[in-house]
Amino acid sequence: MERPESDSVDDGVTDLSFADAEARSARLEEELRTSPAAHRMLTGDRPTGPLHLGHYFGTLRNRVRLQNLGVQMFVLVADYQTITDRDSPQSLPEDVDALLADYLAVGIDPAHTTVFAHSQVAALNQLLLPFLSLVSVAELKRNPTVKDETAAAGQAAMSGLMFTYPVHQAADILFCKGTVVPVGKDQLPHLEVARVVARRFNRRYSPRRRYFPEPAALLSEAPVLLGTDGQKMSKSRNNAIALSATADDTACLISRAKTDSERHITYDPVNRPDVSNLVLLAALCMDREPESVAEEVGADGAAALKRLVTEAVNESFREVRKRRADLIGDRAQLRRILRAGNERASGIADATLADVKHLMHTEYGDG
Ligand code: TRP
Q1: What does the alpha-carbon distance between residue 127 and residue 283 come to, in Å, rounded to a whole number?
Q2: Residues 6+ apart with CB under 8 A from 261
Q3: Candidate from 76, 86, 146 with most ligand 1 atoms within 8 A of CB, to mutate
Q4: At residue 257, what are phi and psi to the nearest 5 degrees?
Q5: H helix intervals, the chain
Q6: What are the CA-CA distances from residue 75 to residues 46, 136, 148, 182 (Å)?
Q7: Which domains can be identified in the chain, with CATH numbers?
């Protein structure tokens, strides 16, 4: 029997080709330069502790760049996501404040960027229900990032929220009709869920006029910074230099960083990952090429390299750290900024939910 043209929830149109995502990302980058105001960027972070230099060079700096280009900006504090894999939310208020302080200190400007927490935007969360009806369990089970995260969290049983959080993430993106989502490669499967949800919603409920735009990933070209132990820089591995670290903390962490036994410093990420990572960090801070930094240190060896890196980090983050200290000292102000962002996001989410109800023929309770 021929397969009917259907709006089935698993229509096999999921497309996880990295090459396609890369091509879309390149086109998007071009459009952002020519018509930034036509695009809406949405991205965010889980409030699980202070952000570090990996976040800064990997994504924060790019957000500020997009903000300054004139893209419409939404930055999300993904507080509900923190309960996918941990059960103690006691530290959330401080973690949220710390995240806000990090954002503002690096130059995310609430006058141009809506910063909000998704738990505070009721209508956003309500989109989860219709969206869940648009994806199949088989599709959710295939998501490699959810599998990895579940394994990393070391939990015996996967919660329903963990299983469905990519759909929640689709609501995060689509409530504001986001078109640009700056992500790393690991987030591509989630972005694909958001694309599929948008496509299937449109086909089922708004076939004549596309209601949700399909968001595209903006893949970052940012180099990956390793932690001081040579592993991925991560809040939980104790190998990260936080944005908020003091100059002394920074010196201490860098002095403990792994190097190798060869004295002459070179930039060779494949064969000398630890030394090259330090060279890269200094180069990023000084806005120079890593090869030229390595050459400058050369025969002076690892101790000289560490001195250079420490100075480069402390020098280039001095202002950011000072701003951050001032910000964290005024929590009432941080909360006011978040409240204003939540209100703005809620206004948009309410309008989207009203449209969705209309398109789904479920407005009989209204008015
Ligand atoms: N999952 C992202 C992370 O772990 C955070 C996040 C939540 C997000 N919702 C999002 C990122 C929507 C991009 C778009 O960092």
Answers
A1: 44
A2: none
A3: 76
A4: -65, 145
A5: 18-34, 53-55, 61-69, 92-106, 122-126, 128-132, 137-142, 144-153, 160-174, 188-205, 247-255, 273-286, 290-297, 301-316, 318-328, 331-359
A6: 11, 28, 25, 11
A7: 18-224+331-359 (3.40.50.620), 247-316 (1.10.240.10)
The distance in angstroms from the start CA to the end CA of the chain is 46
325 Cα: distance to centroid of ligand 1 (angstroms): 26
Which DSSP letter does residue 184 get?
-
DSSP letter at 242?
Answer: B
Q: Is the CB of residue 174 below 6 angstroms from any atom belonging to ligand 1?
A: no
Cα 181 to ligand 1 centroid, rounded to whole Å: 9
Beta bridge partners of 117: 77
Could you tell me if residue 301 is left (phi over 0), alpha (psi between -120 and 50 degrees) or otherwise beta?
Answer: left
121 token code pair? 């935007």
Distance between Cα 273 and ligand 1 center (Å): 28
Site to probe by mutation for ligand 1, drawn from 40, 46, 114, 150 as the one with most ligand atoms within 8 Å of Cβ, is 46
Question: Token digits for 213?
Answer: 């735009």
For residue 283, give both structure tokens.
């180069």
- Alpha-carbon torsion angle 258, 259, 260, 266, nearest 10: 150
Give CA–CA dist 248/254, Å, rounded.
Answer: 10
Cβ neighbours around 26 below 10 Å, total = 11
What is the C-alpha separation between 155 and 109, in angstroms, rounded? 38
Q: What distance in angstroms lies between residue 14's CA and the mean position of ligand 1's atoms?
A: 20
- Residue-level pLDDT, tens digit, the chain, 367 residues: 344 444 566 655 455 688 888 999 999 999 999 999 999 999 999 998 889 999 999 999 999 999 999 999 999 999 999 887 666 678 899 999 999 999 999 999 999 999 999 999 999 999 999 999 999 999 999 988 888 887 877 777 788 998 999 999 999 999 999 999 998 888 899 999 999 999 999 999 999 999 999 999 999 877 788 999 988 888 778 889 999 999 999 999 999 999 999 999 999 999 999 999 999 999 999 999 999 999 999 999 999 999 999 999 999 999 999 999 999 999 999 999 999 999 999 999 999 999 999 999 999 887 6
The protein residue whose alpha carbon is closest to atom 2 in ligand 1 is: 45
